[in-house]
Structure formats: structure tokens, C-alpha cells
Write a structure and sequence with these properties.
Structural class of chain B: alpha+beta
Helix content of chain B: 10-25%
Number of domains of chain B: 1
Distance between the termini of chain A: 19 Å
Number of helices of chain A: 17
Number of domains of chain A: 2
Strand content of chain B: 5-15%
Order of helices and strands of chain A: HHHHEEEHHHHHHHHHHEHEHEH
Distance between the termini of chain B: 93 Å
Shape of chain A: globular
Strand content of chain A: 5-15%
Oligomer: heterodimer
Strand order of the largest sheet of chain B: 1-2
Largest sheet of chain A: 3 strands, antiparallel
Chain lengths: ~325, ~280
């Protein structure tokens, strides 16, 4: 990794905790060359208009992701209601054919509230930590979390209403998520009760699916209403500590989205569909520090940008694998 | 004045924000505070039920003391999944503190130990339900059982005991005046009526499969259902007691081996039940 990418890597970790991405101080000569070539290039503008006119909407990754998300949650439901014993428990803690799997944030909350480390818990936590470190931490968010799917549908409604100028997205400072993470950790320690688990829409929804609905769903509904009428994807963007925990786990993940500067028209369609557009700052004209830039750890690997990009400049990538092949 | 002129020697200061931008920034901070308040308020509302639901709930066997239980339960419901009689339910928002934590409503469906091994403890990933309480956690006086409880169903097995060190509650005759045994009455019919869907293991019917209580009608001369169906040996018996006026009558008496499973409460044919389990209660000699 070049010095410039290393600097960007460190910068992206700060972005994960809520800092706004900064303009790069230096750009590699090769990237500089491409940036220069693109500036005021009439051919490129014509090509761009052509590509835009012929762009077709793909939903390849979205469909795969929705199928995976529904399948995983269905597996929980089926395991209990038909007693298949394949994936027992709920998203907070489960057993996959006997192996303990424990949600990292739930495990953390329990350990902080209980103030003791339990061996079974540690084993399950480790398994999950390795899994998500490999797959990219926040992959959990968009590929597994049931609230993400509901929020995605609510987001569609929000965008529709926003287009009709009936609502506007009220953005909120992203540092808030880090503040909440600390706040919930402190609350768990002080009260000796897993406060976050009581309001986590992920846990509530997962349990409602498996064990039947309850009044706690009202809270989930309230969150969705807030997101539709007030602030786009507010819970996932500004509150959820699960996202931050998994984001940290996925910092070193080999699976990520990779940006290639060469073909990019810098139209920013990808940033418009993205849950975390601050990770895509590199696609802004003149920002890419190298010809190829990996996307940072706050990315949920949802693939919406990959589907949207008309030029294939954003792609799923496994670190090292492309070199091997 | 000279102060108004931009000085070329100093590093250029950030241009002041326009009025619009300043207003935007201020609104953004206000919204941030609003969302923080909202989420914290919602989180605090998790404690609200505590105000109106102080009633202690019966936790599954092997549960840690309430405070430790609430701290360590990860709310996954694996205990719910393994219970053969579906005695364990997860708490909803109005059931008091601990949304998603397991509890047992003994009157509706008690734990009859028909799993033989206390499977819920085995399933628990966090040790909220445990066979061996770790040393750093205190055992309350009277909570520990004098001896491992002997399961009547396994009495003839080489290992007849349950792996249970502490009781989850103690049964108590709360309405002796309506107890059929005390009145010297018998009982005929379905213990809890035809609509009751609670299950119980009847050894003479099926060793492994609990059946609906409604499918097992009784016809007994003197009611002793609580003693008859108690899964634990020597936990309860019908004794003859003398009233102050010298008259004798019979009454169920709870003994030390009672683990607080609640089968007596479930099977009691009187409405409301004469005998109930007091959750988290300890044995007082």
C-alpha cells in the first residue's frame, strides 16, 4: 500500500467515528495524470452523456443481498417453528448446528453490565468476530440485520416524498453515533442492565420474527416514521452502536468495494444511493489519491453503488485475490 | 480602520460563514440534540415498567439472582426453543423490566422437568441460567437446595437427580380456605377445564412426551393433585393438622426439596389457585 493510501486508510478510520472526510493533501502522479486528462475533455463529456442515456438499472447485488437477508432471518424462524435446529436463537445470540454465535455488540453490552466474562460467550464472540473481520464488519448491517431491510423500504418512501417536496432530509452530525456508543456502554456499566438491548430494533425485530410480535414493535415503527418524515436512515446513520462495533471489526477486512478512477465520470450517482456517502468521498472529482482506492470501513458492502455505477468503476474486491488471479 | 483591511502577511483566516450557513449549522446542532434526547428518552422508557410492575416473575430453572440475571441475559430465547412444554416465554414491553428476557407463568404452563436434564440451562449461551453458579456470585440464604432434587420420573434410573443447586421459588398455600383437600373433597374431571392447553408429563401415559392436562381427566376421592403431580420427590405432601378447636383436617404441606417449578400451581383445580409459587422466594425453616 502506498503512503497516500495509508494516510487515507487512517483518515477513513476517523471518518468511521464521525469526522468529515478531508480533501487529500497530495495525489499520486499517476492519479494526477488521469485527473488532468479528464479536465475539460470534450470526448469524455460526450461519452458521459452517451453512457447516461443508455444506463440501465441493475439490481443484481440488491437482489442477492435481500435474498440473503431474508434467508438468514427465515432460517432462524424455520429452526424454531419447525424444530429443525439449524440456526437456534435470535440475532443477539444463536447456535449454528451447535456452534455458538454471539452478536458482538450484545456480548459487549452483557459483559459491561454483568462485569464478568463468561467462557461460552467468549467462544461465540470470537467465532463471530473472525467471520465479520473476514467479510467486512458492517456487511452484517446490510446483509443480515432485519431492520436494515425495513429501513431501506422506508428510505424509498422518504425519497419519494422528498421528490414531491413534501419532506426534506434533516441531516444530523455523525459524531453522534460515537457518542451513543459510549453512552450505551456507560449506561450498561452504571445500571447493570443491557439498556441498549431493550431498544435495539435489530433484537426486537429478530425476536418478533421468531417468537411472535409484541408491543416493542411500536418502537421500531416509531423509528421508521422518524426516518420517513424527518431524517433519512437516521437510526443506522447516527445512532446504532451495532454498526460502529462491526465497523471497527471490519477495519482490516479483505472484502471491500474498490474504486477505479479511470472510467469514473464523477457524476456522483453512487453517493446518492449510499447509506454512508462519506465513504465515497473519493469519487468526487479530483479527490482520488491513487488510480485504485479501496472504500473505507464504514461501508456496509450493500452493493447499491456497484449496481448504480454506469461505468463499473465501483466493484466488489477481495484484497490480494485479484493479484493471485 | 486598518483592522477592516485584510492583512496579506498573516495566514488567510477561514472566511466567515454566511448567515444562511450559520443558521443551517445551528439547526443541525438543534436536531442533533433532539435526536439524542429522543433516543435517550426511549432508552429510559425501558425502565418505566419497573414503576408499575414490581411483581417478581418466575425465571427459568438455574437463573442467577434477578439483578445478575437482567445484566447477563442476552435475550436470544434459546431457552424458549428447547423447552418441551413451552413453559418459557419472553417478556414484552408491558411485562416489566427486561424486554425479551425469559420468564415462566406457572399457572398457564409450569416447568414439569419433562426434559429430565434442565435443557434451558444447557441452551443458555451467557450463563444467565447455570448449573454451577460461579464463585464470585453470592448464594442467598435458603436459596440453595439441601440435596440434589430427585425427579420422581427418574426415580428408578441409576441417576435419579436433577442437576439443580438452587431453587427458583417456593410453593405456598395462599388460599387454604378454598383448598379441596382441606375441605375433604375429592375431584372429578379435567383439572383445569377442557379449554386449558397446558401440558404435563404423565409417566403412566408416556415417559417422554408430555400431553395436554385436558386429555388426562381425574377421578379421585380426596384431592391431592398438587402432591400427585409434583415432579420432585418429597417436596410436598398431604398432612393431617389439628385446628385450635381440636378438629382435624388435611392440608398440603410444602417441604424443603421444593424447587419452585410451579406444577402444583398449574394443576390446582380451584380458581384462583390455592397454591402458588412465590418467585425468587427462599426456604425458611
Amino acid at each position: 500500500m502506498s503512503e497516500l493510501l495509508k494516510r487515507r486508510f487512517r483518515d477513513q478510520i476517523k471518518v468511521l467515528f464521525g469526522r468529515e472526510p478531508s480533501k487529500p493533501a497530495a495525489i499520486s502522479p499517476k492519479a494526477q495524470e488521469i485527473h488532468f486528462y479528464k479536465r475539460g475533455n470534450r470526448d469524455l463529456i460526450a461519452e458521459k452523456l452517451h453512457a447516461r442515456a443508455h444506463a440501465e438499472h441493475k439490481h443484481k447485488w440488491r437482489n442477492r443481498r435481500w435474498a440473503t437477508l431474508i434467508l438468514v432471518n427465515l432460517l432462524f424462524v424455520v429452526s424454531f417453528s419447525f424444530d429443525v435446529q439449524l440456526l437456534e436463537g435470535a440475532l443477539t445470540a444463536s447456535r449454528f448446528v451447535g456452534f455458538h454465535l454471539i452478536d458482538l455488540n450484545s456480548a459487549l453490552q452483557v459483559m459491561l453490565a454483568h462485569k464478568h466474562v463468561i467462557r461460552n460467550l467468549l467462544i461465540g464472540t470470537l467465532t463471530v468476530a473472525i467471520l465479520w473481520a473476514l467479510l467486512g464488519g458492517r456487511t452484517f448491517c446490510s446483509w443480515v440485520c432485519p431492520y436494515h431491510l425495513l429501513a431501506e423500504w422506508a428510505e424509498k418512501l422518504h425519497l419519494y416524498l422528498a421528490k414531491k417536496k413534501l419532506v426534506t432530509d434533516q441531516s444530523i452530525r455523525r459524531e453522534l453515533r460515537t457518542v451513543f456508543w459510549v453512552l450505551f456502554a456507560v449506561l450498561a456499566v452504571v445500571t447493570g442492565y443491557t439498556v441498549f438491548e431493550a431498544i435495539s430494533p435489530t433484537g426486537i425485530l429478530s425476536r418478533a420474527l421468531i417468537y411472535g410480535p409484541g408491543l416493542a414493535l411500536l418502537w421500531v415503527f416509531a423509528l421508521l416514521v422518524f426516518e420517513v418524515f424527518f431524517s433519512r436512515r437516521a437510526w443506522c446513520r447516527y445512532v446504532c452502536p451495532i454498526g460502529l462495533t462491526y465497523g471497527v471489526v471490519g477495519i482490516v477486512s479483505p472484502l471491500r468495494i474498490k474504486y477505479t478512477l479511470k472510467d469514473c465520470f464523477h457524476e456522483g450517482d453512487c453517493r446518492k444511493v449510499c447509506l454512508v456517502p462519506h465513504v465515497l468521498d473519493t469519487v468526487i472529482k479530483g479527490r482520488a489519491v491513487e488510480t485504485e482506492v479501496p472504500i473505507g470501513p464504514d461501508c456496509t458492502r450493500c452493493g447499491l453503488c456497484v449496481d448504480t455505477c454506469p461505468t463499473g468503476s465501483l466493484k466488489f474486491d477481495v484484497k490480494g485475490l485479484s493479484k493471485l488471479m | 480602520m486598518s483592522e477592516d483591511k485584510p492583512t496579506s502577511s498573516a495566514t488567510p483566516a477561514k472566511p466567515p460563514l454566511s448567515k444562511d450557513r450559520r443558521q443551517q449549522a445551528r439547526r443541525r446542532i438543534l436536531r442533533t440534540i433532539l435526536l439524542t434526547g429522543g433516543v435517550v428518552g426511549a432508552a429510559a422508557s425501558g425502565f418505566l415498567p419497573l414503576v408499575y410492575a414490581q411483581k417478581p416473575r418466575l425465571r427459568p430453572p438455574g437463573a442467577l439472582d434477578e439483578k445478575d440475571f437482567l445484566a447477563s441475559c442476552i435475550k436470544c430465547g434459546q431457552c424458549v426453543q428447547v423447552c418441551p412444554v413451552q413453559a418459557i416465554k419472553l417478556a414484552d414491553l408491558i411485562d416489566g423490566i427486561g424486554v425479551g428476557t425469559p420468564h415462566i407463568d406457572a399457572r398457564a404452563q409450569a416447568c414439569d422437568f419433562s426434559c429430565d436434564a434442565v435443557q434451558c440451562i444447557l441452551a443458555c449461551p451467557t450463563g444467565s441460567l447455570t448449573y454451577h453458579k460461579p464463585e464470585f456470585l453470592k448464594v442467598r440464604d435458603g436459596a440453595s437446595l439441601a440435596a440434589a432434587p430427585i425427579l420422581k420420573a427418574k426415580e428408578k434410573d441409576p441417576e435419579p437427580t436433577l442437576n439443580l443447586k438452587e431453587r427458583i421459588g417456593v410453593a405456598r398455600l395462599v388460599r387454604p380456605e378454598s383448598c379441596l383437600a382441606a375441605k375433604g373433597k375429592g375431584f372429578k374431571g379435567q383439572a383445569r377445564g377442557a379449554d386449558f392447553d397446558g401440558h404435563l408429563r404423565y409417566m403412566d401415559v408416556d415417559r417422554w412426551k408430555p400431553i395436554p392436562v385436558a386429555d388426562h381427566p381425574y377421578d379421585i376421592a380426596e384431592c391431592d393433585l398438587c402432591v400427585r403431580e409434583c415432579p420432585v420427590k418429597n417436596a410436598i405432601s398431604i398432612e393431617t393438622v389439628f385446628a385450635p378447636d381440636g378438629s382435624k383436617r388435611k392440608t398440603p404441606v410444602v417441604h424443603e426439596p421444593c424447587v419452585g417449578c410451579g406444577v402444583c400451581e398449574m394443576i390446582c383445580p380451584v380458581e384462583p389457585a390455592c397454591i402458588v409459587v412465590e418467585p425468587r422466594e427462599v426456604w425458611k425453616a
